[in-house]
Design brief:
By secondary structure, the protein is mostly beta strands. It folds into 2 domains: 2-143, no CATH class; 155-229, Immunoglobulin-like (Sandwich), CATH 2.60.40. The protein has 2 helices and 15 strands. The strands form 3 sheets. The protein has an 8-stranded antiparallel beta sheet with strand order 7-6-5-4-3-2-1-8.
Amino acid sequence: MKSKFIPLVLVFGNLVFAQNTISFNGCHNLFEDQNFTFFKTGVDGQNKNIYITNPVDGQQPCGGLGTCEFKIQWNNTLTRWEFLADSGNGDFVDPFLIYYNSTGNSSALNPPSNNVGTWVENVAVTENGCGGNLTAANSTMTGDVHTSTLAVSNSGKGKIQMFPNPVSDYISFSGVQNGKTLQIFNVNGQLIRTETYTDRMNVNSLSPGVYVLKVFSANGNSSEFKFIKK
């Protein structure tokens, strides 16, 4: 396993994607007890987000495995999210599959957290080096990940709308039937506000940044929206 990872240098220049990041810490036997930051670098043909670790400049050592460079992306053929490790050239042409998750909301545009569905360790590659599937007990996975098995904006089959976005003062909703609760989460997945549903929500007190808003209906359905507070 260790011989499969070699150092690499890949510079992205001064690109900044601070509003679309995933933080990961896990698989300590192979990757050491350190934090890795994934930055959203684009979307694929299914409009699923693609994330690659940062820095990608050869500066994050990885337990004798060389430089850890990882990627999280959607595999449309196998209908699953995959956690990949680069094979040594920084191009992810022939990467190693470390984990995969096919049970954590395949309709979402971003990957599931470590407690949604099952991130399965690919022991054929890791040789059991990660100590089993990802869980909240052996890893952290926060940021631009979804924390619900419900599909994004699935209530009303896509008819629910939130506007404007970006927003300064008030968010409005349309197409919501039997709305019950509104919740706002920060980019780390922390719940910061819960309110009884109304079709207009004051967000003036929020600090500028990216947030996730969830609309819950009385029948248990949920819709999820990402918005920018100016």
